[in-house]
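Marked as duplicate of an earlier ticket. Keeping the data here for the record.
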Amino acid sequence: MTPDTLDDERAGDAERNEAGADGGYRVPGLERGLRILMQFSPREPVLGAPELSRRLNIPRTTVFRLLQTLESLGFLERADKDRNYRLGIAVLRLGFEYLSSLELTDLGLPIIEALRNDTGLTSHIVIRDGRDVVFVAKAQSHAPIFSSVKVNVGTRLPAYATTHGQVLMGDLTFEELKKLYPEPELERFTAQTPATIHELYERIRDDARRGFAISESSFERGISVVSAPVRNDTNRIVAVITTTIPRREIDAELLDHGLVDKVRRAADELSQRLNYRPKSGPNGGNTYMKALGL
């Protein structure tokens, strides 16, 4: 048995004892990985395994394995192709997405509450996280019929199969969409679910041209929605504002009373609060949309 192997076995014993002392609720390996990340700072942006091993009193071989795991997940990256490390993009992504969602919810909650009060419909703010959409804010309708709608803050749904996701992907080019969905066929949830990447792209383009989307039982039977995109100061779609109608079809009376315009105005208001300013080309129209061929 080598000294490193003996160190690892002792470390494993220490981990098991530590977990037992806390009723088995702590995960020492996870804790050690997080403690490694916490060692990096603006004053010390680059650190190596020997220094981390010394500081944290962890065997060097264990530190190497933790570093390689964190690197594979994008939380660390090599500094100057050396054995030293620095924080990776995944750490920034976690932080920026969290701050972004805070800004969206803080600025957007009064807007969707006003939309709920005006329409009587439950309203949400939804963002995209990779291949999922995530509901980050909710203004619940007071009507009893909405008690059957089980969509809450934190709910995740497949982006390609939902109207929310299709609107959120309105900025993506066809190549970007192919990277996100490399599979030849997409799982179908209803007859209206896009079955291929080409069908999905056409759906996305149609919604982008229109500037909003209406869905009648396209993902879940008995649930219809109206969604509109929210853009930030970089002119990118960062969220959608959506209203939920707990019926298979949207009543003509709701549409006659300007439901679509109300949702679009709410999305435009949140966009303005995020410092979005439309940029028009020489012939009018949005230059970004023209770049996408829309």
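See parent ticket for discussion. The chain is about 45% helix and 15% strand.
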